[in-house]
Design a protein that fits this description.
Length: 394
């Protein structure tokens, strides 16, 4: 039977709605989730997003109020303020304070469930505390995976524009030059540059020494160097006013070149470090940068190493703080009620962020191992979570 054309959109809509319901139902069945689980997951994620929107809106207002004078004085374009700064400020701020949002969300809606005797009703059916934690941990997993992917790949790309904007218009301390740079560019090859400008990608006072069996075999000097950004190959440099001295025992050979194209395994990013440069690299780029700088014997890599390890440590905070939040707020309290739980939750969540900042400072300035500095807040709060979990009636 031929279906009239005017009924097709309604029929297709019904079929799509039915298919969507069947797909969601099948997904819930595969995950083994009951109606109660879906209810808690919906409350958790909904409260998390709601708090996220409110706090981000407040943060943007505070940030505008704080930076308005500096932005106006520097005559920053409105398009740059919105597109380069605030459009990238929101995901950066969200990821940075994600543990705080998770903790407050858990405390807030779990306290409401406890005050309404809903958790008592759940336990009266024979549900254990461990079973109650399942939808919470599923929600925490969704948030942790999102936080991990954003921190590894998405936010660093946006941070390039945000950090450049801050350094140019707000802090006005954009570093574009470096003086007296020395680094090992390859095994037995040491480069020295008297001055380099990252904006023009050029410098002067360049020398390149090659050693073999701890003996100097070649010494190259150039008055000017220019990095070739149009070349299809990386590490392509053009040297001008070049002198090359080659040593072979007691013999010495000297060559002069007005211009010389050369491949030197260094880039402008290796020569000039901008403020918060580690925040502008994706995790694969950060790992390669740390490895390359270690091979060259460079110092001052602690901030880069802390940033790398922190991106993996941060998502685990969602599980730890969720467990602490549920353990604190799942019991119905007389007197203080929700206010006490929220107060304790805020104190613990801010303590976590403060401790994370302090431990990172100890790694950068105090010589702590960067990996330990990134993970020690998780280790400490995991111990607190375990104690609270053991004390909660099962």
């Amino acid at each position: 039977m031929k279906i009239p054309s005017f009924k097709m959109p309604r029929l297709l809509t019904r079929l799509l709605q039915k298919a969507r319901k069947m797909t969601l139902r099948r997904l819930w069945e595969l995950l083994g989730l009951k109606i109660l689980d879906r209810y808690i997951i919906g409350k958790f994620i909904g409260t998390y997003i709601f708090l996220l929107l409110i706090i981000i809106a407040i943060s943007i207002v505070i940030d505008i109020n704080e930076k308005l004078d500096k932005i106006s004085a520097s005559h920053a374009p409105l398009k740059s303020v919105v597109m380069d700064y605030y459009l990238n400020f929101v995901p950066y701020f969200t990821n940075l304070f994600s543990p705080l949002f998770v903790f407050i969300a858990v405390i807030f809606f779990t306290s409401k469930l406890a005050d309404g005797s809903e958790i008592i009703a759940m336990k009266s059916t024979g549900m254990s505390f461990r079973r109650l934690l399942r939808p919470y941990m599923i929600s925490a997993s969704l948030i942790a995976v999102t936080t991990l992917l954003l921190g590894l790949y998405v936010i660093p790309r946006g941070n390039v524009a945000r950090v450049n904007f801050e350094n140019t218009y707000v802090k006005r301390k954009k570093v574009t030059t470096a003086e007296n740079i020395q680094l090992q560019v390859d095994k037995g090859v040491v480069a020295f540059l008297q001055h380099f400008d990252s904006e023009t990608k050029s410098g002067y006072g360049f020398s390149l020494d090659k050693f073999k069996d701890k003996k100097l075999v070649s010494h190259l000097t150039a008055q000017q160097v220019q990095y070739d950004t149009l070349s299809a190959h990386r590490y392509h440099w053009t040297l001008r006013s070049v002198q090359v001295r080659t040593f072979n025992g007691m013999r010495e050979k000297v060559e002069y070149h007005e211009s010389l194209d050369s491949t030197i395994t260094m880039e402008p990013a290796d020569l000039v470090n901008t403020r918060n440069q580690q925040e502008t690299m994706t995790s694969p780029e950060l790992r390669r940068y740390i490895s390359r700088q270690r091979e060259r014997g460079a110092a001052g890599l602690q901030a880069f190493e802390v940033e790398y390890h922190k991106r993996f440590a941060m998502p685990f905070a969602a599980f730890i703080l969720t467990l602490i939040g549920v353990s604190l707020s799942s019991e119905k309290r007389k007197g203080g009620g929700m206010g006490t739980s929220i107060g304790v939750g805020l104190a613990l969540s801010f303590s976590y962020i403060l401790f994370q900042t302090v431990s990172a400072s100890f790694a950068v300035n105090g010589g702590w191992p960067p990996m330990l500095a990134a993970w020690i807040p998780n280790i400490l709060f995991a111990a607190i979570a375990f104690v609270l979990y053991r004390r909660t009636p099962q």
